[in-house]
User: What shape does this take?
Amino acid sequence: MTTHPFRRAAFAALALCITSAPAADPAGKPNRLAKESSPYLLQHAHNPVDWHPWGAEAFEKARKENKLVFLSIGYSSCHWCHVMERESFSDPAVAKLLNDNFVCVKVDREERPDVDEVYMTALLVTNGGGGWPLSLFLTADGKPIFGGTYIPPADKEVDDGKILGFGSVVKRVLDLRRDKEKDLLAQADRVAEMTKKELEGEKSGPAVPLDRALVRDAAAAFDIDPEWGGLGSKRREYAGTKFPRVAVWMFLLRESAKPGNEGLAKAVQGTLREMARGGIYDHLGGGFHRYSTERTWTVPHFEKMLYDNAQLVELYSEAYCLKPDPLYKRVVAETLGFVGRELTTPEGGFATALDADSNGKEGEFYVWTADEVKAALGNDADFDLVRKVYAAGEPNFEGTAYVLRLSKPATDLEKDARLEALAAKLLAVRAKRTRPFLDTKIITGWNGQMVAAYATAGRVFGEKAWVEAARKAADLLLTKVRGRDGRLSRTFAAAPGGQREARGAAYLDDYAYLAHGLLALHDATGEKRWLGEAKAVADAMIKWHADAARGGFYFTAHDHEKLFARTKDSYDGAQPSGNGAATRVLLALARKTGDESYRAFAGRTLSHLAGTLKGSPTSVPAMALALDEYLASDPPLAAVEPAKPDAGPKVKSSADVVAGELNVEAVAGGRQPFSVTLTVEKPYHIYANAVKNKALADAATAVEVIRDGRTIDATLAFPPARTVADAAAGDHDVYDGKIVVAGSVEAGTGPLEVRVRLTACTAGRCLLPAALTLKAK
Assistant: This one.
């Protein structure tokens, strides 16, 4: 067991550490996190702690006020993150202590894995162990001084010692800063240098083979809402926000087309249809809003982002190739109509986003009251039809207004000739309202995504005008944001004098997304120019961002402003990661040009990030799609030697502390009995099935049985659990030591596999959730 860094002895050994912000209102008013979209951050939106989201504003405040930073990182299914939120961050006394002495920053590790990777590495290199919640003290320039995991509100006795509480920790930090500030800053420099070396060195852990099982397991890891589509948690009954997260559906769409994946195909198609029918889609003006605030896709956050609409156009176009659904074609046409009408700049590029608010009210531009609909139509019969079609029964927005969504299957709507004219009437009335703010800057990568959208839709639906729009935007980007040396700028935006100019250094995703768009243009036109331009952009990407020795790409260029550590992004959130997009670009270039060097670098990148794909597949669907393309390469790609692990494995995942074994018995009475034995290392525990605590539902241990690549029904008997009394997060049931889950399935042919999803925690920290895939010996 690694000694907790906030225990008395360890604190003296680490020897160093922090500082102030105005006190938050103890009445529970929203803090800055209330404007975020992450469910984890929103869980802290009413804390009295004066939280800042990660960003330049927080660190500028720390510099200006000569303070240090308290950084807290967690995720929504982390038990000890819930404990700290309820026990400490909701406590006005703790909040005052933090607000008076620090600038406080809260991060969702699932939303910002790049930030989490840097600071978890900092903890690992100083402490030898890690976990979540991650609590770190930083200098105002972001260098880590020291940290740990769980900090209670006051000193606390635990199973194996004493954990210092916030009062004791802050006092020591302030004493150190007052008496030994020079040493404290030197400590930060040392930790930053150690972190940098670790991040830029070889990854620890066993090598992961690049095989079909990795792709199959990644596809099976996503929990899809069977009723409304989209991603969620079965244990939470799929409640909560839903994001389009297109990289997931691009990957699953590809997997769903493979033989034997009919169930997945139904889930993917169901998701696409429900998003298109829901209020997240603008049924009058076309285009998608940012995300849904609830399960049914009805009530969105009303912001419209260029990158969402670009990716969704490409997704629905590709889906139409597999299933020519008229709804998909209509969504593509209406969305590109919206882009052409409201986001296209005079130069032929694409603006960044439309705000969610008008007149300071979210959604005001888009929602309707019944009286407004009646006044716009002026006819009871028309009003009744619109109300029926767009599900305008009981108000669904703030108790008084409607977000329009389709109540009928789209095939029924196609037969209603009156509806198009009525929708046009409503759109004309809506156009007279105060419009949301339009951010007119042109971002290179996002425009590259829209080039891909227009080109792909033009190819699929035979629309030359869409291909021409892609061509015009591509010409703009290549002539206005690319320098003579072949390097890209991040934006083409208004300078102080009013004229647009290329500004800022491009990042990895700018190169990868633009190259993807150019390749899509080549697919749509067959013109050699676009293949040549894609190759030139990819070559510049390799030159300025590639890690030639180990594989993968850095997010920033080799000569970019240096932070204390440099990351390789791999997480696919609202957009695919730069590494995922870049790998797919390299494979496409290898396929189109026959240049084996692109293939080789794609293989090294996949090998470099294969551990993430195995340990956290839901975070990297773009890389899973790239691996599928890699394995399908013709001619076959040469095997890639995986990176060698370094010495001294560092525990980060629940799979590092839980071993599993599957035993299959002889068939009896038409049933195939089996047992799953899990051995949990001390002092960790995993959560029972069921955990009997709604807040921890996502952490409960789950067992899924698979035969021939398909999940099958199973009878399962879980062992008795141990109840843990917890005043902060609520009592819950756990397993520890060795546990056996007995089960049986209907007899059949083919070997059984079992996938066990679990989260391991101990006093004060949780490890990353893991999925163990077990096969009978």
